[in-house]
Amino acid sequence: MLNRAVTVFDEFYNKGFCRSTKSLNALLVAGLIAKDYEEVKRIFMEFPQRYKIDPDLETYNNAIKAFCESGSSNSVYSILVDMKKGGVKPNATTFGTLLAGFYVEEKYEDVGKVLNLMKEYGIPVGVNTYNIRIQTLCILKKSNEAKTLLHGMLSKGINPNSVTYNHLIHGFCKEGNLEEAKSLFNSMVNRGLEPDSNCYFNMVHFLCQGGDFEAALKICKDSMEKKWVPKFSTMKSLVNGLVSISKVEEAKELIKNVKKKFSKNANLWDEIEKGLL
Ligand SMILES: *[C@@H]1O[C@H](CO)[C@@H](O)[C@H](O)[C@H]1NC(C)=O
């Protein structure tokens, strides 16, 4: 698919059409979507010169993404030098991508270097930068380190948002630290931040997996108040769990509510309901 795109692009250019940064960027985006990082790098390194196109910030950000997502974040330092020469100023996205790259490669010294570079470039380290760092650490199953960053941002007077908490809660859930997930969920709500639907679904799913059916029921009810019904398999494990701790009435009530809000699966629930009688 991408190869064809490149060929078409080449033909276009050879005929003198459409020599724009915009079409170059579109091609890079197509490469990123296809996760064809080598091709993105090749296009980025060859096309601007071959077709006399000036790369803009978007061009650089796309290329940097390809380097960072393919384990060569280190190459980005020289790209930053080129950007400076070309008078293109990086923005928070540029550095966010680079930070995520260095975290994934576990190059923590470089994380510090990038944060210093941001200062040099006058780009404030705000909530979005923290969120990228927290998300990456959570994916790497280092949720405790991510939580240290949460405390770091709070002590600097940077307010976390719901995205911050969603990442942390999912991270702790996946690591099986449900007490921490519950406590973060509560502090999030206490701060007046709204968990998103996935956050509710994750909590219910992992609390059921951990056998904490009462907590799962409470969160499930809150979620359904917002018309967000967890998927069938999650609901089924909650219902079965409630029955296993002799909360049959609660299980029946839950099924009644689901059928009311989610008529699509009503017949599936009829089966399970029959089993509870
Ligand atoms: C950085 O620049 C890119 C490309 O112009 C843009 O899409 C992105 O939204 C910018 N990021 C921020 C945080 O402003």
From TrEMBL:
Keyword Nuclease carried by entry: no
Protein name as catalogued: Pentacotripeptide-repeat region of PRORP domain-containing protein
SUPFAM superfamilies recorded: TPR-like (SSF48452)
PPR repeat coordinates: 56-90, 126-160, 161-195, 196-230
Species the sequence originates in: Gossypium tomentosum (Hawaiian cotton)
Keywords from the named record: Repeat, Transit peptide
PROSITE patterns referenced in this protein's UniProt entry, alphabetically: PPR (PS51375)
Family: Belongs to the PPR family. P subfamily.
